[in-house]
Write a structure and sequence with these properties.
binds uracil, elongated, alpha+beta, nine-stranded mixed sheet
């Protein structure tokens, strides 16, 4: 009953009724007991002759809006979990739903929430090679000569000062493209605390709008308004799983 309920066949009570109809089968055997233990790896589950693609984890793409935080509890602010429908905001078969990394309270854009701990480990590991692309609006316009300076500083690496308890560091090579005097796209392969904002601070500018638009080859779905979310498709999950590690 748990597997059926997690795959949208209703509440545990509704699923119990469904089982009693005899429409549920596992490996061609009708199953009526709610306690039947299905082998998630090997068994074939059918409901009304339709094969059910069993998922053990939940994968959500959210277009995070501003003014919400990426933690599960925050006394002061709404959290990204408050944006989820009740039916999605719970553990799935694979574990608890959590954010894979964080975006600042005033940052918008692509956020992955999942119950899949091994994917999360891969996405947030400092050894992960994953690129993250951000759309940025800068406080000050940058003339073309200085745009070249910004681009080459990002390419070479920028020496970032410590911030609060966070240590300073030299940023890894990053790609910057300007789309106007004060709008640009930055692709980085790491995710240090306030990284993008700190990079532009060193360049004597300030990020006044920040939106993550891609993680690796996974792009933010433009149909999602800020605060909206949807499940990832199987192809999109594969895109994340194919992300490699840097072995150094
Ligand atoms: N860099 C930042 O400064 N903030 C974010 O939210 C993400 C990257």
């Amino acid at each position: 009953d748990k597997v059926l309920a997690k795959h949208g066949f209703g509440t545990r009570k509704e699923v119990k009724k469904l089982l009693h109809t005899g429409l549920v089968s596992v490996n061609n055997q009708v199953v009526t007991s709610q306690d039947f233990k299905i082998d998630l790896e090997c068994d074939s589950l059918f409901v009304d002759d339709e094969k059910i693609n069993i998922r053990t984890n939940l994968y959500i793409m959210m277009n995070k809006c501003q003014d919400v935080v990426c933690s599960s509890k925050d006394g002061l602010h709404r959290t990204v979990f408050d944006l989820l429908d009740e039916e999605d905001n719970h553990s799935f078969m694979g574990g608890d739903l959590h954010c894979t990394g964080r975006l600042d309270i005033d940052t918008e854009g692509l956020l992955i929430l999942t119950t899949d701990g091994s994917l999360t480990h891969k996405l947030i590991s400092p050894k992960s090679e994953i690129s993250k692309k951000y759309a940025i609006i800068l406080r000050d316009s940058v003339n073309s000569e200085n745009q070249q300076k910004y681009i080459s500083a990002c390419k070479t690496g920028i020496e970032i000062a410590p911030e609060g308890k966070e240590a300073g560091f030299i940023s890894l090579p990053a790609t910057l493209e300007f789309s106007s005097d004060n709008t640009c796209f930055l692709t980085i392969t790491e995710g240090k605390y306030h990284q993008v904002k700190r990079m532009f601070k060193v360049l004597d500018n300030e990020v006044i709008f920040l939106k993550r638009i891609a993680i690796g080859s996974l792009k933010l779905d433009e149909n999602l308004a800020p605060g909206e979310y949807r499940e990832l498709s199987n192809d999109e999950i594969k895109k994340l799983e194919l992300i490699g590690f840097r072995f150094d």
